[in-house]
Amino acid sequence: MTTETIPVSDAVAAEALDTVAELLRGKQTAVLTGAGMSTDSGIPDYRGKGAPVRTPMNFQTFVGDERARKRYWAGSHFGWHRFRAAEPNLGHRSLARLEQHGAISGVITQNVDGLHTRAGSRHVVDLHGSMDLVVCLACGQAFGRDSVAARLEKDNPFLGVPDAVRVAPDGDAEVADVESFVIPACTVCGGMLKPNVVFFGELVPTVKFTEATALVAGAEALVIAGSSLVVNSGIRLLEQARRRKLPIVVINRGVTKGDGRALIKLEAGTSETLAGLAARLVG
After folding, report:
1. Active site residue 101
2. Catalytic residue among 77, 92, 116, 128
3. CB within 8 A of 157, min separation 6: which ones?
4. How far apart are CA 58 and CA 258, in angstroms?
5. pLDDT tens profile 14-68
């Protein structure tokens, strides 16, 4: 199969969108989204143009290094406030509209910002978790992120007046001085708390990946929007679709690992492209 890569500019946008809309029309379509989906909401991409080089927190370091855990919680607190302030963009709203009209069957997202749900999408598989929950690694108790944030600010007053920080797609941020930082503990058993997101070095929970594969299994086409497909879970879902010979459309600015396996690659932003598809498919 040869991928048709279409660089979308003003001159060719209408024709490119017409081609994709015709391909998807009448098909139950599953959508996989990545960090590029939320850049228009002010949440930066890991690997997009201009993205800083950084080493995200991994699970082994989080549980084994108290200072690293302090740094993560301090930075993650600022990141959480940025996530809460972010609003769904045109791309999120367009997917919700497509789902409401039956043009897509659901969204699988690698993002942890919750913006798809806030935009109105009902069938959302948060493959890598969601920042709005915190879980205890010892007893499994879950807490709302707002309640944990309130405890953090009470125990660490400096958090109430944060300076400018660099926020990452997983909610982490760079904070310099964390030596005196007080880490929250589980109020049920005293165990270690962790935001309900999949860290590097962790596996996607089986139940989540099962939900994602079920969505792809029931689909007649797959659209991948704003993901470079570097993370293994995304590639596995793409391969599931490819083995079934489903038409695959990739929408992303920049190279992705799925480019050679897609039927069509649109070199374009997700917001305007998904809005254009929604206008063609559901009016």
Report:
1. no
2. 128
3. none
4. 25
5. 899 999 999 999 999 999 999 999 999 998 875 445 444 556 789 999 999 998 9
